Structures are given as C-alpha cells and as structure tokens.
Amino acid sequence: MLEWLRGRNWGWWLGWVVLGVLVGGGVWAFSSGKPNHDLQLQVGYRGAGEGRIEVGLYSTDYAGEQRWHLPSDNVLTLSQLSERYTYSQAVDLAGYGPRARVTTLSDGPEDVQLGFRVSRPNGSWGSSRFPSREALTSAERESADWVLSRALAVRVHVNQPLLAGIRLAYYVLFAFLVVIGATMYVWRRWLN
Questions:
Q1: Per-residue model confidence as pLDDT tens digits over 79-101
Q2: Burial of residue 174, with CB atoms counted within 10 A of its CB: 0-12 exposed, 13-18 middle, 19 or more buried
Q3: Which of 29, 45, 104, 143 has a C-alpha 20 to 30 A away from that of 87?
Q4: What is the three-class DSSP state of 113?
Q5: pLDDT digits (tens, 9 = 90+) for 180-191
Q6: Segment holding 118, helix H or strand E
Q7: How far, in Å, CA of 28 to CA of 39, rounded?
Q8: CA–CA gap between residue 122 and residue 101 (Å, rounded)
Q9: Interacting residues of 158 by C-beta distance below 8 A, sequence separation 6+
Q10: pTM
Q11: Is 185 helix (H, G, I), strand (E, B) or coil?
C-alpha cells in the first residue's frame, strides 16, 4: 500500500487536497449559524417637572454592556399628548442593534403607557411592544430617579457578507456540477 501511495504524482495528491478543502469549507459554511447578538431593551422614565416626564431606552447587549439611549425629544408634556400613539425620534442602538424609538400610548394625562418599537432589517418599523399594559402611576410619573420597565428581548440581525459569499459560491458550484452531470448522462445515454 505504501509503495502504491509513493507512486502517485503531484496532480493526484493536489486533487485530494482540493477535494478536502472543498468538503471542509462546505461543512463549515453550511453549519455556521449567525451569532446570537440579541439584546435586552427597557424603557426608562422619570419625572421632569409638573406634568412632564423624561423618557429613554436602556439596552444590555449580548456581552453584558449596558447603555442609555436618549432621543433628542425625550421630555414629554403629558397634557399636550394629542394623539393616542406618540413616537420619539429614533436612536441607534449600539453594535449591530437596530434603530429604536419610544412609544407613548395615551388616553389622557393620567393614563399613559410606555413601550418601544424597533426597525426591521428592511428599514420599516415593527409594531410597538409594551413591557406592561398598566398605566404609569402618579408616583412613577413624579419619581426623581430613573424607573426601568421589564426587559424585552430584541432580535439583532447580523450581516455576515463573507459567509454569505462563500455559500453563494458553493451554490454556483453545485449548480454547475448538476448541469455537467446531467449533460454527461444525456450524452452517454442517448447521443453516444
């Protein structure tokens, strides 16, 4: 057996190495999933004077790093909320996170709920999510310290262009091999 392997030329060895690299690369490309970079998002609020509250978003990423995100229009005057749903300016969540905005659901100055909505990968806005359907109490609206809502998970879509390009190259290679195989079968079966 050893004598038979020594008699092989470099082309034979190179062919096996290329085949091994192709198989190993394919196994890696199609078994690799997207990393889990999801984050936890909370709505924060505190009193900002008579009938006003300050709002913000508090995120915790997959590595445990915590950040405040304050929209430019983060102070709300509750008596001036004229529409049922009010949205803050969008803020960029750190890392791979999407854009987010604070949602205010109001049926009057005494009946206010806070939530958030995040952008989808295509750029459109998803529906608002509310950590609680309970209205803010007067103590919460007047608190001098930040009050945080229950944390909700936010899906973070990680773009991996290298992995996507390698998978595309394998799809093209497989399609090419199927066309060559079908052509060889037809040629040998009916045209030869």
A1: 777 788 888 899 988 777 789 99
A2: exposed
A3: 143
A4: strand
A5: 989 988 888 887
A6: strand 112-118
A7: 26
A8: 16
A9: 34, 35, 37, 96
A10: 0.67
A11: helix
